[in-house]
Structure formats: structure tokens, C-alpha cells
Amino acid sequence: MTDRIVRAFAIVATCALLGACASSGTVVLLPEKDGRSTAVSVKQGDKEVVLSEPYAVANATATGPRTYQSSSQEVEAKFGSALAAQPSRAASFTLYFVEGKDEFTEESKQVVDRILSEIARRPVPDVLVVGHTDAVGTDAFNDALGQQRAETVRAALIRLGVPANDVRAISRGKRELAVPTPDGVAEPRNRRVEIVVR
Amino acid sequence: MSIRWACCSLLSLSLGLSVSAAAADIGLIKTSKGQVTIEREGGTLPGTVGTRLQMSDIVKTGANSSVGITMDDDSLLSAGPNSVLSLDRYAFDPTTRNGRFDASLNKGTLAVISGRIAKQAPDSMTVRTPTAILGVRGTEFVVSVND
């Protein structure tokens, strides 16, 4: 008990002498867009708190993080400028191929127009073309196949006028199946290319 | 003698190339208002829209200024006025989505929407302040450091 008081006093005294603890920090957890659960842990020395409710706050103090509840108004007042500077979130589109061909389905041709207008809308567009495969074959095989699909779409976007430097092709292989299947199952809806416009 | 000199300059040229190739782009400035600068390898660059960022860059904003950044893993970081944000450590494999992202806010205000790195593995993204370490298990939060 006395030990704890002495230690708390020592921390306060150190802060006063060095001014080292003068910069206090605040963390506020914000709600998720779709209401999913979320959390941030805040660790100060050997003390840790976990914020898991929207607008929960942790304030750094000499004796460790102290929590309380804030509001959207308080957050706007203090962080309005940082929040206003937030870039637009990534927009994602999916293109499907006619089976066995390097050609988009009719529906996907319409999606291409939407992708181009999304790219045109952004100040410094940065486009990621992500190739996906179904679960037939090894990771190495599908990584290469996904890359090949992504490169095909990247070339198509460049032909449509998107600057080559702004488009990158990558592969996720069979790691992110749109329609979950056991390994080795052929599924056309998993053979797709996702376009992420940032 | 001159052959040796040529060899040396070739060697330094190839070293220089490999250094610049290793300093890969990890993020892009998407919004920039007022006075925004980047400290990189002892120099200072203007932080205008379209500037590509590298690991260890320190992004600073002046009074009435702000900056918004998209990282390669879709994380969004934006800082308000009088802020100092350091991109300490960043690694991201877009195929496996494994990675590591450590940033520090030394001063000012920061809004964060975490991306693929934090989604793939909890606590693979941290934000440090002079007093605390934040482990990112969710997506959206704000941080401030008072003078």
C-alpha cells in the first residue's frame, strides 16, 4: 500500500522534474461503418486498457490510461480537421470472364464503364487489379494464374486510357474464394478479377 | 587506374540503384492543405497531393494545415494541424496480406481507418504516442497528443 503511494509519488515527481509526461495523449474509438464490433488496446507502461465501445476514450495519465465516454460532437470539435482530410475509401468492383476466354461477360462490360468513371472522379487515382482463382490446383499454380488474369485486365484498362503507372496487377490466388468450396472444386464464380480504385 | 575508377563508379551506381529500388512506395498523399512537408533521409520535401511515401518518412503539418494518406494496404491516415506523424515500419505482401505497420504520432491529431494488415492479424498494426502504444483490433479511431 505505502509502496504504491511512494511509486505514484515518484512518477509524479519524475514528470514534474523532466517534463517528460507533459505530452498527454488521447485515443477515441469510433464506430464501424456497418456496426461491426471493434476495439483498440491502449498500453502505457505495464498498464493496458481495451476500448471496445464507440466513443470510448483512453487518456494517458501519470498513473496509467484512464477511460471515459465521449461523443461524436466532442470528436468533431477536436478531430474535425483530421477527419475532414481523410481520403475517400477504396471502391471495389468485380469482373468475370467468359469461360475459357480472355473476354468479359456482358454484365462485366457495363462494370468497366463504372470503373472508368470512378477512376476519373479521384484526384490521384491508384488502381489495384487483383486476380482470383477457384480452388483447383496448388497455391503456386493459382498465384501464377491469378497474376495472369490480373495482367490481362491491367492491359485492358491501359488500352482504355488509364495511365500505366497508376495500375498495378497482383494475385491472391485461391486465398479469397467468393464462393467458399472445399479445396480442388471448380467454381466459375471464383474465377474473377477484382478492381480496387483508391 | 582509370579502369579501377570505372569499376568503382559502376559499383556505386549499382549500389545506388539497389538502394532506390529497396525504398519502395508504401503510401500516397491524397489530400493536402496548407503547409505539409515530408522529412526523408535528412532532407525536406513538399507534401503535395500525389507525393509517394516511403518507410521512415516523417510527415509534418503546419497551422491550419492537414494531410490525408492512403497506404498500400488500404489503411487511411489523416492528420490535422501542427502534427508530426512518423511511418516507422511498414511491410505488406499483397498476395498473402501478411504485414506489419508501426506509425507514431509525436504531436497533433490523427484519424485512422486501418486496412488489410490489421484485418489479417490483430496487433500487426500499432500506433505509438510519446506515452502509449495502441494495438489496432478494429478499424476506426482518432488519436491526439497535446504539447
Can you summarize this structure?
The complex is a heterodimer of chains A (198) and B (147). Chain A contains four helices and nine strands.
Task: Record the SSE blueprint.
The complex is a heterodimer of chains A (198) and B (147).
Chain A: H1 2-18, E1 25-29, E2 40-44, E3 47-51, E4 56-61, E5 64-69, H2 72-84, E6 91-96, H3 106-121, E7 127-132, H4 139-159, E8 167-173, E9 192-197
Parallel strand pairs in A: 7-8
Antiparallel strand pairs in A: 1-4, 2-3, 4-5, 6-9, 7-9
Chain B: H1 2-22, E1 25-33, E2 36-40, E3 43-46, E4 52-54, E5 58-61, E6 66-71, E7 76-79, E8 84-92, E9 99-113, H2 116-120, E10 125-128, E11 133-136, E12 140-145
Parallel strand pairs in B: 9-10
Antiparallel strand pairs in B: 1-4, 1-6, 2-3, 2-5, 5-8, 6-7, 7-9, 8-9, 9-12, 10-11
Cα shape of chain A: elongated
Radius of gyration based on Cα positions of chain B: 18 Å
Largest sheet of chain B: 12 strands, mixed
Number of strands of chain B: 12
Strand content of chain A: 25-35%
* Count, helices of chain A: 4
> What is the overall silhouette of chain B?
globular
The CATH homologous superfamily name of the largest domain in chain A equals: OmpA-like domain
Please count the helical segments of chain B: 2
Low-confidence stretches of chain B: 1-22
What is the total tally of β strands of chain A?
A: 9
Order of helices and strands of chain B: HEEEEEEEEEHEEE
Structural notes for this entry:
The complex is a heterodimer of chains A (198) and B (147). With 198 residues, chain A is of the alpha+beta class. Chain A folds into 2 domains: 8-84, no CATH class; 91-197, 60s Ribosomal Protein L30, Chain: A. Chain A contains 4 helices and 9 strands, in the order αβββββαβαβαββ. In chain A, the strands form 3 sheets. Chain A has a 4-stranded mixed beta sheet. In chain A, strands 1-4-5 form a 3-stranded antiparallel beta sheet, with no helix packed on it. A two-stranded antiparallel sheet of chain A has the order 2-3. In chain A, strand 4 (56-61) and strand 5 (64-69) form a beta hairpin. The longest helix of chain A is centred in the last third of the chain and has 21 residues, at 139-159. Residues 5-22 of chain A have low confidence and may be disordered. Chain B is α+β, with helices and mostly antiparallel strands and 147 residues long. Chain B is 18% helix and 50% strand. Chain B has helices at residues 2-22, 116-120; strands at 25-33, 36-40, 43-46, 52-54, 58-61, 66-71, 76-79, 84-92, 99-113, 125-128, 133-136, 140-145. In chain B, strands 1, 2, 3, 4, 5, 6, 7, 8, 9, 10, 11 and 12 form a 12-stranded mixed beta sheet that branches. Chain B is globular, with a radius of gyration of 18 Å. The termini of chain B are far apart. Classes of the chains: A alpha+beta (198), B alpha+beta (147). Chains A and B meet through strand 1, strand 2, helix 2 and strand 8 of A and strand 1, strand 6, strand 7, strand 9 and strand 11 of B. Strand 1 of chain A pairs antiparallel with strand 12 (140-145) of chain B, so a sheet runs across the interface.
